[in-house]
Amino acid sequence: MSPPKKLGILLSGRGSNFEAIADSIQSGRLAAEIAIVISNRADAAGLDSARRRGLNAVLIPSKGRVREEHDAEVVSALQQAGVDLVCLAGYMRLLSPAFVRAFPHRILNIHPSLLPAFAGVDAHKQAIEYGVKVSGCTVHFVDEHLDQGPIILQKIVPVLESDDDHSLAARILEQEHIAYSEAIGMVLSGEYEVQGRRVVRRQRSVEAR
């Protein structure tokens, strides 16, 4: 049996999506291992959580640094850890083009809306103010543009008349925790193709089953 594929997790805050990924691995639902967890903030709760789990948790501060210089250090750490896939889990920084080129179609992000609707910050608030009836979350490949990479999968969440941005965010987050591990498993399986903007799942052959 081949060794599990290695994930690199990048986070800036509490890391609830990181926690969900780690739980999926621990329970056997996701065949992977977390090789490194990197935060750009010393006060990120997700970094402490990674340490409690016994994972390789690394602080690479970004404050006051040139983005390209900081990104080069992060890329180096990920490469040294031998990661197969980079997962952004509440990483509050735009990646430089050089970072994206270092891991082509190997960087994932999750966004709390049905992209291309409500990209950027305050997606839940945007959805409430716009009056949409459904929202959700999107796992996508990261490219050089904000929230514009090819979409891997989406989960739909109804917007209730009683919702505010906080209650909607909480319900979407529940789906994020499911969607991210599902998308990681799909990408690590290699059973997909990127056709322009479309991510198309390949069907396994009878022999491969």
Features:
two-stranded antiparallel sheet; 9 strands; 6 helices; Rossmann fold; 2 domains; alpha/beta; 24% strand; 209 residues; 7-stranded mixed beta sheet
Layout of strands and helices, then pairs:
Elements: E1 5-11, H1 16-27, E2 32-39, H2 45-52, E3 57-59, H3 67-80, E4 85-88, H4 97-102, E5 107-111, H5 123-130, E6 134-141, E7 151-158, H6 165-189, E8 192-195, E9 198-201
Parallel strand pairs: 1-2, 1-4, 2-3, 4-5
Antiparallel strand pairs: 5-6, 6-7, 8-9
Helix pairs in contact: 1-6, 5-6
Could you please describe the fold and organization of this structure?
The chain has helices at 16-27, 45-52, 67-80, 97-102, 123-130, 165-189; strands at residues 5-11, 32-39, 57-59, 85-88, 107-111, 134-141, 151-158, 192-195, 198-201. With 209 residues, the protein is an alpha/beta fold. The protein has two domains: 1-103, Formyl transferase, N-terminal domain (Rossmann fold), CATH 3.40.50; 110-209, 3-Layer(aba) Sandwich (Rossmann fold), CATH 3.40.50.170. The strands form two sheets. A seven-stranded mixed beta sheet has the order 3-2-1-4-5-6-7, sandwiched between helices. A hairpin with a 2-residue loop joins strand 8 (192-195) and strand 9. Helix 1 packs across helix 6 (165-189) and helix 5 (123-130) packs across helix 6 (165-189). It is globular, with a radius of gyration of 17 Å. The model has no long low-confidence stretch (mean pLDDT 94).
